[in-house]
Design goal:
It is a single chain. Strands 6-7-8-3-9-10 form a 6-stranded mixed β-sheet, with helices on both faces. The chain has 2 domains: 17-329, ABC transporter type 1, transmembrane domain (ABC transporter transmembrane region fold, Up-down Bundle); 348-425 and 510-515 and 538-600, Rossmann fold. By secondary structure, the protein is α/β, with parallel strands linked by helices. Strand 1 (350-360) and strand 2 form a beta hairpin. 64% of the residues lie in helices and 10% in strands. The structure holds 2'-deoxycytidine-5'-triphosphate (DCP) and magnesium ion.
């Protein structure tokens, strides 16, 4: 299973971002601790280099004793440089590796989480927004853990170590060298807030842009058919312009902040050099101390300069982290929990009692539905568009949860079954089938969690009256289907979806308008093939043609979320009602058509 083990991010969701980061780093904290330690050592070796420099200048150079100590000191410089370099390298590379791992896990987790969110959540959310959170935001989080976390450690350690070393050199000079620190900190914190807001705005707009783009690309046919290019292009330009404005605002914040912080740090550096020189000239400190100071103070200013950059970058990382956590916060579907999961599968008897269901409170789409099907029987649902047929069958695999009443499968309420189990037992041909940009074979074999042979795939395709069509393609079963299957016709797509469900071999089969896009002849071919396949399984058929529903053991005629008529074809033909009206209408159209054809 694709679930990332030991990485339950749900636990990392906290209102406190620091707590979230701490939890996210679970399992990686040791490496970070080592990286920090190594970085601290590197900083110490750097400071030691300057102390050695002081010794060299004061005791060797000025003392004028050019003996073999010079070589020892030279070796000391090389050794310290090597040590500093190795520890810096070790620290950075281990942190980067860990951050890549963390980001990979996070990406897997977010993807897995997206796949497991409820239908209701996906109904309401925009694809572009979700894509952005799982790509660009996750990447910003990665940068947070690889660059910024390490940078934070480096800044703190370099500052602390060099400050201590400076205090050791000559403490009044050390104090004089950190005068601007409070100003830089206050400034950084102020800009942190401003940049966070600006970046959040920027990301929100980027999500709007990706959603517009994604919708227009999937709906390109509609845009073209209604000649709405200009309108849609203008709309995109408007959104893009807004994105540009927000990006500009973000950049202008940066362009104000950097010069200010650079000027402050520059003044501090020059002031320190100057003060140190004065002290050296009047003999308060030695020349060696001055040189050591000049070297170290650069590494004291460096953290100060980078503190601002770090804080600003971090605000970006933290905003993205928040956006990712907000997504993770959404409850996913519980696929596994459930007390009833008989290993031998289900028989397929279904009883619905006083069922009421709504998507939005106060607007029930199904009301007071009751009926019963024995295992292996066929139920047909007939009714006007929007009467709730798809909604009713979508409750069976628990895509949505009903509010009132009961649905029993083999006498056990379906809420007792784990969703995963239930969905293995039920095969559904969706009203608007979706095909992946993979080969036809892969699309047909999609729902089967095991290796399938060519014979099995061909048998399923034959049953869906599709085999000959596929064979006529130059690439046969290896023909690639474009996104949303644009290279196939509507009827061909439907038949791929039928084949896919048949191959899954479910106990309960749901055909939601599965033959709406195929001609009458093909439909009867599929019906014949399905007739054999439906024999041992409970089947729900939603169809508009009487021929497709008349074979059913039970026909339910629906209107506005209620069952208004029920019975077999013969029973329903006895009474004056919607069913008989639809029948005679369709029969009339057909005889008219026949007459016309004969007249030709
Ligand atoms: N509905 C909704 N949210 C959804 C799906 C549907 O609010 N995610 C609403 C739209 C309709 C009502 O529920 O008002 C019933 O929709 P169905 O899809 O169940 O209707 P049918 O399947 O009967 O219609 P059709 O024959 O057009 O497929
Ligand atoms: Mg429908």
């Amino acid at each position: 299973m694709a679930v990332v083990t030991g990485f339950d991010l749900k636990g990392a969701v906290s209102d406190n971002r620091v707590a979230s980061i701490w939890k996210l780093a679970t399992g990686y904290r040791n490496v970070y601790a080592w990286a920090t330690f190594a970085m601290g050592l590197a900083a110490v070796f750097k400071a030691l280099t300057y102390l050695l420099l002081r010794y060299f200048v004061d005791n060797v150079l000025i003392g004028g004793q050019l003996t073999q100590t010079v070589f020892i000191i030279a070796l000391g410089f090389v050794g310290l440089a090597l040590l500093e370099g190795s520890f810096t390298f070790f620290s950075r590379s281990s942190a980067a590796r860990v951050a890549e791992n963390l980001a990979r896990n996070l990406r897997d987790y977010v993807y897995d989480h997206l796949m497991r969110l409820t239908y209701t959540y996906h109904d309401k959310s925009q694809t572009g927004e979700l894509i952005q959170r799982s790509t660009s935001d996750v990447d910003a989080v990665r940068r947070f853990f690889s660059d910024q976390a390490i940078m934070a450690g480096r800044i703190v350690l370099l500052f602390v170590v060099n400050f201590i070393a400076l205090v050791y050199l000559y403490w009044p000079l050390a104090l004089a060298s950190v005068v601007v620190v409070p100003i830089v900190v206050v400034l950084s914190v102020y800009f942190f807030g401003r940049v966070s807001d600006a970046y959040e705005h920027f990301q929100d707009q980027e999500a709007v842009l990706s959603t517009t783009l994604q919708e227009n690309l999937s709906g390109i046919r509609v845009v073209k058919a209604f000649a709405r290019h200009d309108y849609e292009t203008d709309k995109f330009e408007g959104d893009n312009w807004e994105q540009f404005e927000r990006g500009k605002r973000l950049l202008s914040l940066h362009s104000v902040f950097w010069p200010i912080s650079d000027i402050l740090c520059g003044i501090q550096l020059v002031g320190g050099f100057f003060l140190g020189a004065l002290l050296a000239i009047n003999g308060t400190i030695t020349v060696g101390t001055y040189l050591a100071y000049a070297g170290m103070v650069i590494w004291l200013i460096w953290p100060m300069r980078n503190l601002g950059r770090l804080i600003v970058d971090m605000s970006v990382g933290l905003v993205s982290l928040q956006r990712v956590l907000d997504l993770i916060r959404v409850d996913k579907e519980d696929l596994e929990t459930g007390s009833h999961a008989p290993a031998e599968g289900v028989a397929g008897g279904i009883r619905v009692e006083n069922l009421t269901f709504w998507y939005e409170e106060g607007h029930p789409v199904l009301q007071d539905i009751s009926f019963e099907v024995k295992p292996g029987e066929v139920v047909a649902l007939l009714g006007s568009t929007g009467s709730g047929k798809s909604s009713l069958v979508n409750l069976l695999p628990r895509f949505y949860d009903y509010q009132e009443g009961h649905i029993y499968l083999d006498g056990v309420e379906i809420t007792e079954y784990p969703r995963h189990y239930l969905r293995k037992q039920i095969g559904i041909v969706e009203q608007e089938p979706f095909l992946f940009s993979r080969t036809i074979r892969e699309n047909i074999a999609f729902g089967v969690g095991r290796h399938v042979t060519d014979e099995e795939v061909h048998a399923a395709a034959r049953a869906a009256a599709l085999h000959d069509v596929i064979e006529s393609f130059p690439e046969g079963y290896n023909t690639l289907v474009g996104e949303r299957g644009v290279t196939l016709s509507g009827g061909q797509k439907q038949r791929v979806a039928v084949a896919r469900t048949l191959l899954k071999d479910p106990r309960i089969l749901i055909l939601d308008d599965a033959t709406s896009s195929v001609d009458t002849e093909t439909e009867s071919a599929i019906r014949e093939a399905l007739g054999r396949l439906m024999e041992q399984r409970t089947t729900f058929i939603i169809a508009h043609r009487i021929q497709s529903v008349m074979i059913a053991d039970l026909i339910l005629v629906m209107d506005k979320g209620r069952i208004v008529q029920r019975g077999t074809h013969d029973e329903l033909m006895q009474v004056d009602g919607i069913y008989r009206r639809i029948y005679s209408m369709q029969a009339r159209i057909e005889t008219d058509l026949e007459k016309e054809l004969q007249g030709v």
